[in-house]
TrEMBL record:
Domain (U-box): residue spans on this chain: 959-1033
EC number per UniProt: 2.3.2.27
SMART domains attached to this UniProt entry: Ubox (SM00504)
One GO term describing the cellular component: nucleus
Protein name (record): RING-type E3 ubiquitin transferase
Top-level lineage group: Eukaryota
Family: Belongs to the ubiquitin conjugation factor E4 family.
Localization, UniProt: Cytoplasm; Nucleus
Key words, A-Z: Coiled coil, Cytoplasm, Nucleus, Transferase, Ubl conjugation pathway
Compositional bias ranges of the Low complexity kind: 44-55
Lineage: Eukaryota, Fungi, Dikarya, Ascomycota, Saccharomycotina
Record bears the keyword Cytoplasm: yes
Native species: Brettanomyces naardenensis
């Protein structure tokens, strides 16, 4: 036989087995006792009880009952099967006339004729006479039998026999239905399986119980897989092709699939169905060519559904209502999809492992979803990847949820030791180790082949999906936002062009432009907007986000427990910092050194395990009703995690992850709409771990973010420092953090000096850029206004060039002014709290120079050039900025070293500017009291006096020998040191200031540390000798001058 014939023969064998009862069931109907009815007496004509005198009466009664049951069976079979042996009864056209022989002609229908009757109708006569398809006939038979069985009375003495007859009809009708799906050509009527499957899912509410019986028959006869292969692929293909235009057909198909999987045998063999997990698939093929991909992709994020739900005509209130409706629908949908997956997992064994393998392969082949330049059409959709992430979130609730953290110990910490990992980690960046270090540590001989428990597999799959599944959604949202912005600009230009030409519908060129450009662009723009709204719908679903965030906190708990040297977290608080760097900022910035301190195996874990967690919190923090808001217990745990990562440089070396953590805390620090503190501020002030370490963590990262390794690092640092500055501003409401700054400045001077150095660099650059762009804005605004009034151009720029220059400067000014405002504010706060810390030799001169320079810019001869229209649009308040600069002067007014530093500033110190500043501050109402003015002017007077004294002394000293001058500042050296590589001598104070920004020899760029230099004792002695000699000569000259004038020294 051919292969096909063999298969058919096997199916026929199963057909025979399916429609035949065991031998004991072929006994006389009257003698069969239904299962569970052992206490019911047999009804048999041979049964005898009592005395012989009773025999005739009882025998008559028995015969009567037998006649009654025979009549009942005949009537029921005629009604239910719609068959008869009577030609006269068949003339009505409502019954099939069975072929009679000598033994059956004119006979009643009996239990033994049920199977032959059904077989004759289905395989010989056909059902077309009464029914459209065999499926409808069989369902009709099953349904009538089921209804008849339901009305059998419990006290009916013939009940057991009636039930047995009806059960046989039900069994055979469902068996033949099962066979119909597997061997459709066995029936005389043509069976179109596509139509049958279509009929099944469309009427699933009617057919559900019938389908359960069909599946049970297939299971009993070992033909489960044949039935699944006949039905399931057709259902999933239909799911793939549905238009989802507002109907609920997909819900019906899901119901059919759930009915199948409610049978444990089906769940056990589901992974064997054709198309479950074909080999060699990539990206989007997992969604289009696998059974689970086609089933689990359904959500409101599918493009077709999004466009249907969010037409361009919706108003904002209507959008919110649509959000609410879809959020409820999405939650229900996720529940149903999870139920499908949960059934496969609970089936255990190979079914569970194949499901996990499919989940892993999907995410392993869709890593590019996080790439900014990925092609979405070649990757699994946001809809599928989001659903899979949410399904894993539900799987994780028993061990990562608030009530299940006690089971967190069941997660394998030695995941990397397993050879048979489902997740592809080969090329993944490690948290704080190179790939070479990872490969050296996890050599092949150290790997084990033992399987992991389900909790571990689920946990590490979840971490991966948080990054590439849910994380890909962030990228999609940003990409859609960019598309919408670009297309809106393009559409605006096209519409403006049409307006300029005064186009109307009768203009063929404009009509062609509209039809070929504008109309398609509008349609595409509408699609992108709808898709972005569908993503916003998900992230504004607080209930769902609370579920996700709860699992995020569970993941965080696992990692902090892994970091903890005692592994007792959260039962016992973590001791932070993990290592004491003793204010050695060089060691803290040395990535190679800090890596050696990173805990194992944490340092070798893929960075994406943390990245997915941090990226989620970073993205949702921009939503007003995000899951961190009014979620105190879990928020506590998150902020602890953020502070630990920032406080311990040995844990994470990636500055971008730390920057996102600070941005999350920035959003949590923003004042609420009711004027109350941001929702994280209370955690900052009340959580002991956070409170103790937050200030130093923020200041440390303020310093470290100078270098991010990215091409945009110069501008990246400003964003992070702005966020840190804002958080610090909020912390300043509490005295504890003010005292903490004083402690840091005293106990960690290296960190503090580097911090202020970074702040000085930023302020100098940002204020300079801000004022330059504001000058450009003012110039352009005045020129444009001049031309609009009919004046002749005063420069060579065209109107378009002038407009472009204005737009560019406005964009830059908004950013730079905002950043500079925060940095100046920090200087005001810090100098007021710890003024002595700012007069260190490394800082005083630079701070004085920065303040003097910007004071001149604000009140000097060119201050009028900073006047712009609507300065508030750029957050530029010249009066407030001037007030803060003057406040810094006042904060340091009592520090003589700072007075001296200002006096030494030959480039920018202008005493008259201080009086001009007070005049302006009076004018704008910024002078708080008379003391403010007197202190500021008094400071300026002291600095002016000091400047005059130094000038006179310098004049008296005369020309200084070149060898005594500092080679960088050309000032007389006081404490010369010799550099080890260039052998150049330089003043120690100048070198300290240089090394704050550049740890190299200023003359040959070789790496240099302050402790590497040596005191140039010989040169210092020479300088001191020269100074003494010069001063002695000066005194002698003065004495001679006084003697010549007649003044005699009486001493």
């Amino acid at each position: 036989m051919s292969s096909a014939e063999e298969i058919r023969a096997k199916r026929l064998a199963r057909l025979t087995a399916a429609t035949q009862q065991p031998t004991e069931e072929k006994k006389s109907v009257s003698k069969v006792q239904p299962k569970g009815k052992e206490n019911v007496k047999e009804i048999s004509p041979t049964t005898t009880t009592g005395t012989s005198s009773m025999m005739p009466e009882r025998k008559t009664r028995k015969v009567k009952k037998q006649e009654d049951i025979d009549e009942w069976i005949n009537n029921q079979l005629e009604r239910i099967l719609q068959v008869t042996f009577s030609p006269s009864k068949s003339e009505s056209g409502k019954l099939f006339l069975l072929t009679a022989d000598d033994t059956t002609e004119g006979s009643r229908l009996t239990f033994d004729t049920i199977d032959p009757a059904l077989l004759e109708v289905l395989t010989e006569q056909g059902v077309k006479k009464l029914y459209a398809t065999p499926f409808k006939y069989l369902f009709s038979v099953w349904s009538r039998a089921d209804s008849a069985r339901r009305v059998i009375r419990s006290d009916d003495p013939l009940g057991p026999v009636k039930a047995q007859t009806l059960n046989e009809i039900i069994r055979l009708s469902s068996s033949y239905s099962s066979i119909m799906f597997q061997v459709p050509d066995m029936f005389v009527d043509e069976v179109n399986l596509d139509q049958v499957v279509d009929e099944l899912w469309r009427g699933v509410n009617v057919y559900e119980s019938f389908l359960i019986d069909i599946i049970a028959r297939a299971t009993e006869n070992d033909s489960t897989l044949d039935l699944l292969n006949a039905v399931i692929p057709k259902l999933t293909v239909k799911l793939q092709k549905l238009e989802y235009s507002g109907d609920t057909d997909y819900l019906k198909i899901l119901t059919v699939i759930q009915v199948f999987l409610s049978n444990k045998t089906v769940a056990l063999h589901f992974h064997e169905v054709n198309g479950y997990h074909p080999e060699g698939l990539k990206g989007v093929e997992f969604e289009n060519k696998t059974l689970l991909g086609q089933i689990l992709r359904i959500s409101p994020l599918l493009p077709a559904i999004a466009v249907s739900n969010y037409p361009d005509t919706l108003t904002k209130p209507m959008i919110m209502k649509t959000h609410e409706s879809l959020q409820a629908e999405h939650s229900i949908m996720i529940g149903r999809l999870f139920s499908i997956c949960d059934t496969l997992v609970r089936a255990g064994g190979e079914a569970r492992q194949e499901f996990l393998k499919w989940m892993a392969d999907v995410v392993n082949n869709n890593h590019l979803r996080r790439g900014e330049h990925a092609k979405p059409e070649k990757l699994a959709s946001d809809s599928l990847m989001l659903n899979l992430t949410l399904i894993l979130v539900r799987f994780s609730q028993p061990f990562l949820g608030a009530g299940g953290l006690g089971r967190i110990n069941k997660i394998s910490q030695d995941y990397l030791n397993h050879r048979n990992k489902l997740i592809a980690l080969k090329d993944e960046t490690r948290i704080n180790a190179t790939l070479e270090e990872y490969n050296e540590y996890y050599t092949d001989d150290k790997l084990v082949d033992s399987p992991m428990n389900f909790i571990s597999e689920c946990f590490y799959l979840l971490l991966t999906y948080l990054q590439y599944g849910l994380g890909g959604l962030f990228v999609s949202a940003d990409r859609l936002g960019n598309y919408i912005k670009q297309m809106s600009q393009q559409l605006k230009k096209l519409e403006e062009m049409m307006q300029r030409t005064a186009a109307n519908s009768s203009n063929p060129l404009m009509k062609m432009l509209y039809d070929t450009k504008v109309k398609p662009l509008k349609k595409e723009l509408e699609k992108y907007k709808a898709r972005k709204l569908s993503i916003e719908m998900f992230f504004s679903n607080r209930t769902m986000q609370l579920d996700v965030f709860e699992i995020i906190i569970g993941c965080i708990t696992f990692f902090v427990k892994l970091i903890d040297p005692t592994h007792k977290y959260p039962e016992e608080p973590l001791k932070v910092p993990l290592h004491d760097f003793e204010d050695n900022t060089e060691k803290m910035e040395d990535i190679e050194y800090t890596r050696t301190l990173a805990p194992v195996p944490f340092r070798y874990y893929p960075e994406m395990f943390l990245e997915g967690i941090i990226n989620y919190c970073h993205y949702v923090s921009r939503y007003n009703n995000n899951p961190m808001f009014q979620n105190e217990d879990k928020l506590d745990r998150f902020v602890e995690f953020a502070v630990v990562i920032l406080r311990c440089p040995e844990l994470v070396s990636n500055p971008h992850l730390k920057a996102r953590l600070t941005e999350v805390m920035f959003f949590g620090s923003l004042p609420l709409q009711n004027g109350r503190n941001g929702y994280m501020v209370e955690v900052f002030n009340n959580n002991s771990i956070v409170k103790k370490n937050l200030m130093v963590s923020l200041l440390d990262f303020y310093v470290m973010v100078e270098k991010t390794g990215a091409s945009s690092q110069f501008y990246d640092k400003f964003n992070s420092r702005y966020h840190i500055s804002f958080i610090l501003e909020q912390l300043w409401k509490f005295d504890y953090f003010k005292r903490d700054l004083q402690r840091i400045s005293q106990q960690m001077p290296q960190l503090f000096i580097r911090l202020i150095a970074r702040m000085l660099n930023d302020t100098t650059y940002l204020l300079d850029e801000s004022l330059n762009h504001l000058h450009t804005i003012g110039t352009c605004q005045r020129e444009i206004e001049h031309r609009q009034k009919g004046g002749q151009p005063t420069n060579d720029d065209s109107d378009e060039e002038l407009k472009k220059k204005l737009e560019d400067s406005e964009r830059m000014a908004k950013s730079f002014v905002q950043l500079s405002n925060k940095t100046v504010l920090l200087f005001d706060l810090f100098t007021k709290e710890t003024p002595r810390s700012f007069v260190m030799v490394e800082l005083a001169d630079r701070l004085a120079g920065m303040l003097d320079y910007n004071l001149v810019a604000l009140v000097g001869p060119k201050y009028n050039e900073l006047r712009v229209k609507n300065p508030e649009a750029y957050q530029f308040s010249p009066g407030e900025l001037l007030f803060q600069l003057c406040s810094i002067f006042i904060n340091l007014a009592n520090e003589q070293e700072f007075v001296d530093a200002v006096a030494r500033d030959e480039r920018s110190f202008r005493p008259e500017c201080f009086k001009k500043a007070t005049d302006i501050l009076y004018k704008v109402g910024k002078i708080p009291n008379k003391q403010f003015e007197s202190t500021l002017l008094g400071f300026a007077k002291r600095a002016e006096t000091k400047k005059r004294e130094e000038e006179e002394e310098e004049l008296e000293m005369g020309d200084v020998p070149d060898e005594f001058l500092d080679p960088l500042m050309f000032t007389l050296m006081k404490d010369p040191v010799k550099l080890p590589h260039s052998k150049v001598s330089i003043d120690r104070s100048v070198l300290k200031a240089h090394l704050m920004n550049d740890p190299t020899d200023p003359f040959n760029r070789t790496p240099l540390k302050l402790e590497d230099v040596a005191d140039d004792v010989e040169l210092r002695d020479k300088i001191q000798t020269w100074i003494k000699t010069r001063k002695a000569a000066i005194r002698k000259e003065k004495q001679l001058a006084r003697d010549a004038d007649g003044d005699t020294d009486m001493t």
